[in-house]
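Recall the central idea of this unit: under ordinary conditions, the amino acid sequence of a chain determines the structure it adopts. In this exercise we apply that idea directly, starting from the sequence alone.
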Amino acid sequence: MDFLPLVRFPWRRDDKSYEVYKEFILDEVLGVTGFELTKSVKMKNTVLGFTKLLLQLIVLVAYVGMYCLYARKSYLWIAPVTGIVRMQLQHPVLGDCNPLHKDCRNDFAALETLPYCKQSPLAYASMKKERCEYLDEFNVLPASIHAGLDSMFVPTRIRTINQKRLCKHCEQQFEITDDDTLYVADIENFTLLLDHSYSCPNLDRRGEAKDMQGFLRPCLPPHNCQLIPLDDLPAMAKYMKGEGGNNKTVADTRKFWNAGPAIPLDHAYSLPVGDVFRLGYLLDLFKIDLDSGSNNQYDNHSHRQEGLVMTVQVHYSNFKYDSVPNKLPTIYEYRFDISKLTTYKTTTVKEDEDAKRRTIIDWHGVFLRSYQSGSMGAFSWRECILMLLEASFVFSLCRWFIRLVALNWFKGAPGDDLETKVADEYEMNIHETERVLERKKARTRTRYLEMELQGAGSNEATRLCR
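Accordingly, the structure predicted from this sequence is:
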């Protein structure tokens, strides 16, 4: 702490003249008249000694123990991660079969049970009914063709407009010959697959979803709710290996992250190729009703008609802030957010070869956009040394503060005497040094003489009173 001066404040001296303040500024604050050399003076003061010990214990326990080791994990080298996310949509099927296999069968709900369909006799007073149609993921694929692998568009309403050309260069080139609107039936039971991997080049760490324990945050930002884990599909559990380890490791990991009960397998589960979520489960989890009014502007329309936007964040970590030092396998969690966009749609156009007719398709629905975040931590001697250097700096700051208080503890002559013991002035000119020492001795003799006279006067007054 040599860069922090150990000074005696002018207002604690007997002499409060202009010269004293001038000397304080030039010598102590600016340091233009000289510099300090180390001198050790042992102070005898129980209060200051106990205060110094207490401050150092606070630094050791609060700063090093609680903040550096427990809260901020200062002994870790923390590096960001990068990676990719793949999203895929699938219509409801019996069991867990692949829709491309010849024996795989669809498992759509009956149209009569869907109140938003015109084919259903059930009441649907809040919004307008439309004709429903069964579509699979390949029928709705054109809606997501420009979204990319890290995004997915799940159509809920499709409006098809057929037009014929009237002329090429006129005010109205096309006229509508047919306009049809339909709902995609049973869209809530479509499943969304998310597969992802991460890379942390700085720490030479890599991984993919099947090798890690996955979690879900069942709340919107700030994502401060309890994690819930995903279970492996039992038939595929033998393929799920890697950092997750055996059942004990999985149980210990879930306990450490204070996770709640796992998501039921009919709503979500993990496969070797990614994690599967039923779309209706996610909508219910975040209290999104496709058949309720979407907003004030579209109070006569529903989310099923206008659409909405959800973002999916895949967050990775192999350490946890505010925890005891530990070593954990890498985990990931899904975090969701709902955009405030009032509507979302995409448009595709098909035109005949003769350019006389065209079909415009407006797709409204749920647009999901994914991205990745997170960081990996690894023990580093470099970070440990930096942590110790920071701690030593704080320790030195405490010692400097106590020494500064001690130097200014006494006011007036006793404090001036202490300053003389702590800091002797020495001029590089030997003759000037002798004059300075003589002046100091003279001031000291004068001070002690004044103290003796005051003491004698006090004794005489005591005798006369008796």
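Confidence is low (pLDDT under 50) at residues 460-466.
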